[in-house]
Amino acid sequence: MPLIYGMFLNGFGMSKSASWRVSMLVPAAIFSTVATLMWFFSQDTPHGKFDATQLGKSKVSPMDYVQCLKDPRVPIMIMQYGACFGTELAMNNRLALHFKDYDWSDGVVLSVSAAGLAASAFGLMNLFARSWGGGGGGGIFSDFMFARMGFPGRIWAQFLALTLEGLGLLLFGHMTAFSAALPCLLLFSLGAQMAEGTSYGIAPFMIPQHLGRDGGGRREPRGGHRDAAVLHADAGRR
């Protein structure tokens, strides 16, 4: 995004405010194109269109969410979603500004584009780290633990991944030199993405007849909103 922003700012001579706003149209156009292609040219499952009878029921209902929330495991899973997916959203929102504005003790000064590139390292870990944790079908670490401990192994896999994420975050938060902060960010991201992956090794098995509603749904935005509120509140006290 900083590169796209720079293109409108320096290449087209727009103001900073206009450049940033127009930059948002680029991913919006990409998402709209992909959504349209998926709507017309993809299918729900390898076997065709999804049907509620595949879950052993005749229809889906908003009350399914109520049934899911009655299971205490679901709110716990929602919190775990917020701890990894939500934290990722908060980092995507703040990292570039942090890298650019922070007074690094090793004298590093980053431009908007360079700060954005450094911040992208967090998301780029998704290329492999999520499949290490869980991925779509259980994943390397989650499956490894499952093979040795049964389903509790998947729980332990997520616990260990969340612990690694927390350790990386603590280290990253205490780094004042850019050269030390970036490796800690990669460790932090590795734990976060692996924790996200291990979620996929757990959620489908919690309440199979309510598949898609039992694993936290789209709860990561709430985690992201929570973390963003904390970050803004902390910035306001400084």
From TrEMBL:
Membrane topology field: Multi-pass membrane protein
SUPFAM superfamilies: MFS general substrate transporter
Chain spans, region Disordered: 213-238
InterPro entries named among the record's database cross-references: MFS_trans_sf, NO3_transporter
Gene3D superfamilies listed in its UniProt record: MFS general substrate transporter like domains
Annotated keywords: Membrane, Transmembrane, Transmembrane helix
Cell location: Membrane
Taxonomic path: Eukaryota, Sar, Alveolata, Dinophyceae, Prorocentrales
Transmembrane segments: 20-41, 108-129, 155-188
UniProt-recorded name of the protein: Uncharacterized protein
